[in-house]
């Protein structure tokens, strides 16, 4: 089972990060992905496979304010 932002996700292992983000409709340009405590850079999303028991943190940037 893969954990994403503290929530368990099934059937995610084996996908690459880019496919997973696209499936979730996550805007790739506005997100930082941390995999098991390591930040993964955008050019590495397609080559990085999600494995069972991985822990992902998706951090989105939101504009606003003054």
UniProtKB/TrEMBL annotation:
<protein>
    <submittedName>
        <fullName>Thiamine biosynthesis protein ThiS</fullName>
    </submittedName>
</protein>
<dbReference type="InterPro" id="IPR010035">
    <property type="entry name" value="Thi_S"/>
</dbReference>
<dbReference type="InterPro" id="IPR016155">
    <property type="entry name" value="Mopterin_synth/thiamin_S_b"/>
</dbReference>
<dbReference type="InterPro" id="IPR003749">
    <property type="entry name" value="ThiS/MoaD-like"/>
</dbReference>
<dbReference type="InterPro" id="IPR012675">
    <property type="entry name" value="Beta-grasp_dom_sf"/>
</dbReference>
<dbReference type="Pfam" id="PF02597">
    <property type="entry name" value="ThiS"/>
</dbReference>
